[in-house]
Write a structure and sequence with these properties.
- The protein has a single domain, classed as Chemotaxis protein chec (3-Layer(aba) Sandwich).
- Helix content is 40%, strand content 28%.
- It has helices at residues 20-26, 46-57, 64-75, 92-98, 118-129, 138-147, and strands at 2-9, 15-17, 29-34, 41-44, 78-81, 87-89, 103-110, 112-117.
- The strands form two sheets. The chain has a six-stranded antiparallel β-sheet with strand order 1-7-8-4-3-5, with helices on both faces.
- A hairpin with a 6-residue loop joins strand 3 (29-34) and strand 4 (41-44).
- The chain is globular.
């Protein structure tokens, strides 16, 4: 399980170190794709990625929404292998999508990780602390999670 926040520098070539706590679970490979509805990337272990793909393959390809989702989510995915220093090379297309620059934050969210530009992550985090105009109502969120059984 991936949890916590880990800041890392990204070099000019787009290489970034996978946090050691995440590497322990990932091994040498990570699958990275575009995040949904937010300017971040999703990163999965091979095992978790295969589970997601298997679920997507069960959906009806006759449905245009399914096809569009698969195009967005799967076509943008990259299978990355860490070098000896634990770095992965994030493609320029993925860096542009998530507006990644010099410093990123790896965020563990259970079965996957998210990769955010450090400033975008701060903006997102401010929504939970009330430091943002478009803040998240934590009471409403808590009630929704309770409805889901959490």
């Amino acid at each position: 399980m991936f949890i916590g926040e880990h800041k890392q520098k990204m070099d000019t070539k787009g290489r970034v170190v996978v946090p050691s706590k995440f590497r322990d679970e990932l091994g040498n490979q990570v699958v990275v794709t575009k995040g949904l509805g937010e300017q971040c990337l999703y990163a999965f272990s091979r095992e978790s990625w295969e589970k997601v793909v298997n679920k997507l393959e069960e959906l009806p390809m006759t449905n245009m929404k399914v096809r569009n989702f698969n195009r967005f989510f799967l076509a943008g995915a990259n299978n990355l292998e860490a070098d000896k220093l634990g770095r992965v090379l994030v493609s320029s297309a993925l860096r542009e999508y998530a507006l990644l620059d010099k410093e990123v934050v790896w965020v563990g969210v259970g079965n996957r990780m998210e990769i955010w530009d450090v400033d975008k992550w701060k903006e997102n985090s401010d929504k939970f602390t009330g430091d943002s105009e478009d803040g998240i109502d934590m009471e409403e969120l808590s009630e929704y999670m309770a409805e889901l059984g959490i």
